[in-house]
From TrEMBL:
Pfam families: Ribosomal_S7 (PF00177). It comes from the Bacteria. The lineage of its organism: Bacteria, Pseudomonadati, Bacteroidota, Cytophagia, Cytophagales. One of the primary rRNA binding proteins, it binds directly to 16S rRNA where it nucleates assembly of the head domain of the 30S subunit. Is located at the subunit interface close to the decoding center, probably blocks exit of the E-site tRNA. The keyword Transport does not apply. GO terms for molecular function: rRNA binding; structural constituent of ribosome; tRNA binding. GO terms for biological process: translation. InterPro entries: Ribosomal_uS7, Ribosomal_uS7_bac/org-type, Ribosomal_uS7_CS, Ribosomal_uS7_dom, Ribosomal_uS7_dom_sf. It comes from Roseivirga echinicomitans. One of its GO terms (cellular component) is small ribosomal subunit. Part of the 30S ribosomal subunit. Contacts proteins S9 and S11. This is Small ribosomal subunit protein uS7. Residues 1-148 form the Small ribosomal subunit protein uS7 domain.
Amino acid sequence: MRKAKPKKRYILPDPKFHDTLVTKFVNYLMVDGKKSIAYNIFYDAIEIVEKKGGENGLETWKKALTNIMPSVEVKSRRVGGATFQVPTEVRPARKTSLGIKWMISFSRKRGEKTMRDRLAAEILAASKGEGAAVKKKDDTHRMADANKAFSHFRF
């Protein structure tokens, strides 16, 4: 166990939308420290979403992110000799980071040619409640629901 909790690092808002959540997303999207390329990918993806979707790209992205964020998950807990999958509530900070990670990882696995196209397609799919990232959230919720009987092992 740690002696003290680590200090919370606060990140600066992005230059275009002045939103800290966008900066957090871009930091997860970034590869090899190339932040300007990550910003360009994100902004281009938002433009593509605006063209295809018709409404505000940033609002569509936020809606997609809320559709992906899980509210419950399972954690392994050893009781006696057995390991149980215990359903637990997800902290708000972990919710956002899981949603961001899932959106980026599943958009990287898509078949479109460029990353901006993949990200835009994943954002559009998630905002409609479909796509691989939303399926991952549903699977997580289903797993927690199936293991509801072990919720008394919560710590």
